Design the sequence.
């Protein structure tokens, strides 16, 4: 009688554990990307300073900023829209070829329409790295970006 | 030559140089798809990168691509993390690059609208490994712009990208890379 009870408890707890694990796997598997708008920036910088930092020491800057949430303030050089309707807001000094290119999260596409050339904005995005190019100008790329605020 | 004529000559020359034929075409928002779906995959294993840099030199046929691995967006957050952390190790190797040439560049007339089939040959560096790659592609010249499209397969093991045994049959051993770039003339 007692043994049966123990077995029943063990089976029941195993079932609960299996259920919890299953639920966790299911949740983890279906986990959506975090909305950048809700993330706290790891660093707050200006586009010019950030570009200077990467220019001076690409390796150290990559180590510091890569995969981090950056809040970058800069002047809008260009708003680019590709043929599939994805926007990129390009920040930087118009006198320089280099810029911070922020590809806008598709869920926040409409925000790209609220900014215009020559305006200073703050964009929050995840730093995916640096593309050094002497001919085309070097770029820091932010992905899943959102417009944080306008000035 | 009188004043009026020389003025027109200068104006014509200026016009020619500004609208003249660009030697290089480029983009910074090229699209590259990475697809490692197999028949036994339970769902699409596909990432898209829209921030690829590409430059084509029309004179020499030289072609270059650079892409940041972290910029590949996967629908599932978990898949994207696995791609970055376990497969391509983008914290160690943040960039993939291709340097090559269009081997039949002389058959492409960049100043005439049309679709040109090209063969591109070069070296692809990814995950710290460099391998020779050759592929067929299409260049579509239209209204002063060039669309470059190509797709090719890479064997992941060539780039020392290993797939854990647990999911080995769910992830393709070769990845299909689909390139589509809309290139604009580089004003220099």
Sequence:
């Amino acid at each position: 009688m007692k043994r049966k009870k123990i077995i029943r408890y063990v089976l029941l707890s195993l079932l609960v554990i299996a259920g919890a694990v299953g639920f966790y796997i299911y949740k983890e598997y279906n986990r959506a990307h975090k909305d950048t708008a809700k993330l706290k920036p790891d660093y707050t910088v200006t586009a010019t300073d950030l570009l200077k930092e990467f220019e001076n020491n690409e390796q150290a800057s990559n180590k510091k900023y890569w995969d981090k949430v950056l809040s970058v303030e800069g002047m809008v050089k260009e708003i680019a829209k590709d043929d599939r309707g994805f926007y990129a807001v390009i920040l930087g000094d118009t006198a320089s070829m280099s810029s911070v290119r922020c590809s806008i999260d598709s869920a926040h596409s409409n925000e790209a329409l609220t900014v215009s050339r020559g305006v200073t904005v703050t964009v929050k995005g995840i730093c995916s790295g640096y593309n050094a190019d002497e001919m085309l100008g070097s770029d820091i790329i932010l992905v899943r970006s959102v417009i944080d605020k306008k000035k | 030559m009188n004043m009026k004529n020389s003025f027109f000559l200068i104006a014509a020359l200026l016009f020619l140089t500004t609208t003249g034929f660009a030697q290089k075409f480029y983009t910074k928002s090229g699209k590259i798809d990475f697809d490692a779906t197999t028949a036994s995959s339970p769902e699409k294993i596909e990432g898209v990168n829209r921030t690829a840099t590409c430059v084509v030199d029309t004179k020499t046929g030289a072609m270059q691509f650079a892409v940041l691995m972290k910029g590949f967006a996967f629908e599932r957050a978990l898949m994207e993390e696995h791609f970055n952390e376990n497969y391509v190790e983008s914290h160690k190797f943040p960039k993939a690059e291709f340097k090559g040439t269009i081997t039949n560049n002389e058959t492409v007339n960049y100043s005439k609208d049309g679709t040109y089939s090209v063969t591109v040959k070069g070296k692809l560096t990814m995950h710290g490994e460099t391998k020779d790659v050759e592929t067929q592609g299409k260049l579509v010249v239209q209204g002063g712009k060039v669309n470059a499209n190509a797709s090719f397969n890479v064997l992941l093991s060539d780039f020392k990208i290993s797939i854990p045994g647990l999911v080995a049959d769910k992830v393709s051993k070769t990845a299909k890379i689909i390139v589509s770039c809309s290139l604009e003339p580089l004003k220099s």
